[in-house]
Design goal:
The protein is α/β, with parallel strands linked by helices. It has 2 domains: 4-53 and 300-409, Aspartate Aminotransferase, domain 1 (Alpha-Beta Complex), CATH 3.90.1150.10; 60-298, Type I PLP-dependent aspartate aminotransferase-like (Major domain) (Aspartate Aminotransferase, domain 2). The protein is built from 15 helices and 14 strands. The strands form 3 sheets. The protein has a 7-stranded mixed β-sheet with strand order 4-10-9-8-7-5-6, sandwiched between helices. Helix 8 (230-233) links the parallel strand 8 (211-215) and strand 9 (242-246). Helix 2 (60-73) runs antiparallel to helix 11. It starts with 17 loop residues before the first helix and ends in a 5-residue tail after the last helix.
């Protein structure tokens, strides 16, 4: 018989890098005001790793609204879960405004995006149902799917033929069980920066009976007219059955929401365990979210500024010979075709000597064998910061081609 703690001492996919990476590649400590320049290890860096797309995180109007809301309400009110004692007019107001913005009948607030995703999926399906989801789905989707006691299938990333193959399998099962089919994709895949193939997915509704749920954490505020999301960008608003987004990206806050038909949202309101059995979102955060939503609606130029920065950054990287994949969003992945330790040496040089901070992403966050430097442009990045970053990448490329990082990697043991 084994000790349940035995697994703690076996190095897994990420923990194998703990001894050489903790505090530097993982769990880095960033200091200073949120913005395009922050400090890491006491050095000022050009920061490409903060999901503050629209620059709201440190916007003076937002800071003022947050401070006033905190002073007015504190962070205790309301106490209790929404069904018990935490329901307020302001929560309902935010939900009405989010529903209208997302083009849906109703919406419901989520305390956290991750737990919301897990709980929504859990509430929607039973053992007779089948889930079909994109293999590159976010961890919160995967964890929600893990709770499902029925069948589930992955389809290859953004591959409509693979999706249809899995839908055929799902239909055979549901014809026997009497269940339904839930298809899950993302409006924007947060690592690759690719939009989900929403148009192609909803087109299959003509042949197969299913409902589609999308996670648009990175599309909300950045895509579509006025930043209303990937479903507006792709003109499939009515065909998307359930729409989910977080406040942790364009809104620069905490929380999220799910939107859809009124009856579906009412069902989730009574059956999402992560919300029924959790304290309601504090009023200060609700009021802050209302202010952020108003900023997005009243300042459409913020999205335009974001895209201007993103396209200039992406153009510069491509011209410098870097592979940014098939991104069609502001998310800018730089694919490194090297082993993880060599990639780590490259990132160390970039941070220590060029003062450029990007996040390095490896398995299991992304598929095995893939390494990405993920860059998040914001409205606040300047042309000078883009130019400095591109020049650093050019110098790093020269070192990579000369084998500098490969030689450094030989001396690292994990």
């Amino acid at each position: 018989m084994n000790d349940i703690f035995d697994k703690i001492y076996v190095k897994g996919p990420l923990t194998q890098y703990r001894d050489i990476g903790e505090g530097y590649y993982m769990f880095p400590k960033l200091t200073g005001e949120l913005g395009p320049r922050m400090k890491f290890n006491g050095k000022e860096m050009i920061m490409w790793s903060i999901n503050d797309y629209l620059g709201l995180g440190n916007h003076p109007e937002i800071r003022k609204a947050d401070a006033e809301a905190a002073a007015r309400w504190g962070f205790a009110y309301p106490m209790g879960s929404r069904p018990m004692s935490g329901h307020t007019d302001m929560h309902e107001q935010l939900e009405r405004e989010l529903a209208e913005f997302a083009g849906k009948e109703a919406a419901y607030l989520l305390n956290f995006g991750y737990q919301g995703n897990v709980s929504i999926i859990d509430a929607l399906v039973n053992k007779n149902d089948v889930i079909v989801y994109d293999i590159d789905s976010h961890a919160s989707i995967i964890d929600g799917v893990r709770l499902h006691q029925g069948k589930r299938y992955t389809f290859q990333h953004n591959d409509v033929e693979s999706l249809e193959t899995m839908l055929k399998r799902a239909k055979k099962i549901t014809d026997q069980t009497g269940g339904g089919i839930l298809v899950i994709s993302e409006g924007v895949f947060g690592m690759r920066g690719e939009q989900g193939i929403l148009r192609e997915i909803v087109e299959l509704k003509k042949k197969y009976k299913f409902r589609i749920y999308i996670d648009d954490a990175h599309g909300f505020g950045t895509l579509g007219e006025g930043g209303r999301g990937a479903h507006f960008e792709q003109d499939v608003v009515d065909e998307i059955d359930l729409y989910f987004a977080t406040f942790a990206k364009a809104m620069a806050s905490i929380g999220g929401f799910v939107a859809g038909d009124k009856d579906v949202i009412k069902y989730l309101q009574y059956n999402m365990r992560s919300q029924v059995y959790a304290k309601a979102m504090p009023m200060a955060l609700v009021e802050g979210a209302l202010k952020r939503l108003d900023m997005i609606r009243s300042h459409p130029e913020l999205k335009d500024q974001l895209w201007d920065v993103a396209l200039r950054l992406q153009k510069g990287l491509v011209e410098a010979g870097f592979d940014i994949g098939n991104t069609n969003t502001p998310i800018t992945p730089v694919y490194l075709h090297v082993d993880p330790i060599e990639a780590g040496m490259l990132v160390r040089d970039m941070r220590d000597n060029h003062r450029i901070f990007t996040s390095i992403v490896v398995y299991p966050v992304i598929p095995r064998g893939m390494i990405i430097l993920r860059m998040i442009p914001t409205t606040r990045h300047t042309q000078a910061e883009i130019d400095e970053t591109i020049e650093a990448f050019k110098q790093i490329r020269q070192k990579q081609e000369a084998g500098v990082y490969k030689e450094m990697a030989k001396h690292i043991k994990i």
